Amino acid sequence: MPGLPRRPCSSTDRKPSSSTGRATDALVAPVPWFMVVLPLGTMSDLAPRAAYDRWAATYAVEGRNPLTDLAADLVRAHLPAVSGLRIGDLGCGTGRWLLALDQLGAEAIGIDLSGPMLAAAKAAGCLRLAAGILTALPLASESLDGALLVLSLSHEPDRIGALQELARVLNPGGWALIVDLHASAADRGWKRSFRDAAGESRRVRWHAHDEPRLRRAAAISGLQVECWHEASLDASRLPAGAPETASTGAALYALRLRRWP
Ligand SMILES: C[S@@+](CC[C@H](N)C(=O)[O-])C[C@H]1O[C@@H](n2cnc3c(N)ncnc32)[C@H](O)[C@@H]1O
Predict the structure, then answer these.
(1) pLDDT in tens, 116-141
(2) Total structural domains in the chain?
(3) Per the confidence metrics, is the pTM higher than 0.85?
(4) Cβ within 8 Å of residue 93, ≥6 positions away
């Protein structure tokens, strides 16, 4: 994180997205990565807790892929200064952002619904961790200066409940940066899949929250939209054999919100 270029956050900073075509190709990659269509037949999607409880053992290694690299680019571009601030990493997983926030001088706390993901975060050196869900955070009202949600809100069906809870725990004037899967990826047939410690392919349920719905949920929750930015995967960063739809249209969005002062 430190030393990397920052880009200003602007509501007009938007790439065109398209949702043409359905993915049918299998991804052939040296390591599996989770935001692609895999030929998994009738496999049913696991609920997030069950999925991440299984994935925790391999997430730190397998969870690094072109999509999470793009998510990192968006966080770097849109994260406000955090030094000296109390920041919640909501859906912190194995703690990769918690560690980065600590390095940047924040007092960061990680919240996650998966005990094994939290245990992995603890083993990685994260100090402040708590079990909880986005719609019922184990945090006092007005206790955070900022919040980071990377690839977690899309697992929560109740986006309004989650944003209302976010508004409750943020100080007046506090911000939240959400980086997550773009809704058009669902139209293109993207699934979130991973391989567990036994080598079995699994899929995890996700919900496509599109821009109008997110903006409405923010308004209902008393959160102001500071920026909306869409980004696509760069075809040159994809592994050989990745389906064409992997780099067609928007892959992720970054949404920065601020609680009204
Ligand atoms: C794709 S991982 C991302 C982890 C981390 N933010 C990162 O970027 O590496 C999603 C995480 O969100 C957590 N999660 C999913 N739904 C959640 C919810 N409703 N409340 C809290 N955590 C949730 C999962 O357990 C998982 O650790």
Answers:
(1) 999 999 999 999 999 999 999 999 99
(2) 1
(3) yes
(4) 52, 59, 63, 112, 114, 117, 120, 121, 151, 152
